[in-house]
Amino acid sequence: MKKMYPLVGMTSAAMILAACATDEGTNDEQLDDPITESDEEVADADEPEDSSDHHQTAEEIIKAAIAAEEERQSFSMHSVMTMGIDASVDEDIPEEEDGEAEEREFIEYSYSHEDGTVSTRNETIVDGEPTEYTAGDSEHTLFYTEGDDVAYRVEQFEIEEDPADVNPMANQFEQFLEEYEVELVGEEEVNGFMSYHITFSDDVEVRHYWIEQETYEIVKMDNEHEDNPFRIGLDVLEFEESIDYDEAFFKLEDVLPEDVEIEDRDQDEHLEQELEDSLDDLDEDQ
Questions:
Q1: Which candidate, 69, 121, 75, 100, places its Cα nearest to that of 247?
Q2: Helices and strands of the chain, counted as H and E runs
Q3: Residue 239 domain flag
């Protein structure tokens, strides 16, 4: 899937819970009994209006989500990632850090072209900090931070597969189905989306996923861990399929200043600089 948060790990399933068996409700004697009109009316009243969705297993829903992602040509998404510490897991965590949470807001756009290439645009928003933009195609990714006079263009990593076929979400889910227990908890409305609530769990951890029932998009993620106090969650606020393609928009022409300098960087140099900047940010926070 073309998303900015593949590091929101999904835990998995070594065992798939079977769908609940339905009670046939008949035997030889009942078949021999005459059926009255009132009996038929009662039977019709007991039959769900649409039983197909209610009998999907967790595995079937996950496979449907993978299929929907592979078929999706384009989308836009607005989401919020929350990261924080749960001090109830570790008594050594300072009290002032308990419940401290950082929010990162993401606005993403992705468009798969007929030739197999993919154009992406992502905006990362943190309160009190300049917005960070990235835009990519099959050859380069452009990085720009609001207010800077330089943008960086980095050559894409080479991959053997067609970019449109790369699907990290499918790889994660398939791994989870092999390694963890999966369960369909039920149907819930979250963030305005009617969703299937699915969990992946082992002895110490539970990962929660809410999958929207029409598009099969993940609209919420959360985690619990008995030993790790770090918590990370994701809430999708808006999701739209089938967006229009605008070449200028996917090249950040609406946000780049006219006099901005575009500097080419190789992959290693860019990664080293990103790591250095992250370490500087950590030092400033301490």
A1: 121
A2: 6, 13
A3: yes
Region of residue 191 (left: phi > 0; alpha: psi -120 to 50; beta: else): left
Counted domains in the chain: 1
Indicate the pTM of the whole model: 0.72
pLDDT tens, position by position, 22-46 = 333 334 433 344 444 445 444 444 4
Q: DSSP class of residue 55?
A: T
Computed on alpha carbons and rounded to an integer, the radius of gyration of the chain in Å comes to 24
- Alpha-carbon dihedral 12, 17, 19, 20, rounded to 10 degrees: -140
Distance (Å, whole) CA 67 – CA 217: 11
Q: Give 57-102 pLDDT, tens digit per residue.
A: 999 999 999 999 989 999 999 999 999 887 677 666 655 555 567 8
Domain membership of residue 125 (yes or no) is yes
**Cα 136 from Cα 266, distance rounded (Å):** 15
For position 19, what pLDDT does the model report?
A: 29
CATH value at residue 79:
2.50.20.10
260 alpha carbon, distance to own chain's centre: 33
Question: Which stretch of DSSP H or E encloses residue 273?
Answer: helix 267-285
Weakly modelled stretches of the chain, pLDDT under 70: 1-54, 87, 90-100, 157-167, 270, 273-274, 276-286
The span from the CA of 269 to the CA of 99, in Å, is: 36
Q: Is residue 227 domain-resident?
A: yes
Distance CA 70, CA 174 (A): 14
* β pairing state of 140-145 and 132-136: antiparallel
Number of neighbouring beta carbons within 10 Å of residue 34: 5
48 within domain boundaries: no
